[in-house]
Amino acid sequence: MHRKVPDRHRHFARTMRADATMAENLLWQTLRNRQLEGFKFKRQVPLHTYILDFVCFDARISSASTHG
User: Fold this and answer.
1) Cα–Cα distance between 53 and 45 in angstroms, integer?
2) The dihedral sign for the CA sequence 22, 14, 60, 49
3) pTM for the structure as a whole
4) 43 touches 33 (CB < 8 A)
5) How far is it, in rounded angstroms, from Cα 44 to Cα 32?
6) Residues with Cβ within 8 Å of residue 65, at least 6 apart in sequence
7) Cα(39)–Cα(56) distance, rounded to whole angstroms?
8) What does the domain layout of the chain look like in residue ranges?
9) What tens digit of pLDDT does each residue of 20-67 get?
10) Coil, helix or strand for 15?
């Protein structure tokens, strides 16, 4: 079920994409464009009150860390 994400969470996720660490950028280069076994990954996705760093909805896997 898709829920409306608050604008502040959406803005924060956009900011996190722009300010990614070197490690996040290196991992993203491996995950993007279905390069990992054909799975589609997204990054910095707002979900409820969390920002998921990397997520693949098809495989039901995600990575999230606490962002201050």
Assistant:
1) 7
2) positive
3) 0.76
4) no
5) 13
6) 53
7) 7
8) 7-64
9) 889 999 999 999 999 999 999 999 888 877 888 999 999 999 987 755
10) helix
Q: Tokens standing for 24?
A: 């996040």
Cα-based angle 46, 51, 53 (whole degrees, multiple of 5): 115
Show the tokens assigned to 48: 């409820």
Q: What angle do CA 68, 43, 62 make, to 5 degrees?
A: 85
Beta strand spans in the chain (E)? 42-47, 50-56, 61-64
Is residue 50 a contact partner of residue 64, using CB atoms and an 8 Å limit? Answer: yes
Q: Token pair 């606490």 is at which residue?
A: 66
Kindly state the helix (H) or strand (E) to which residue 11 belongs, with its residue range.
helix 7-18
Under DSSP, is residue 29 helix (H, G, I), strand (E, B) or coil?
helix
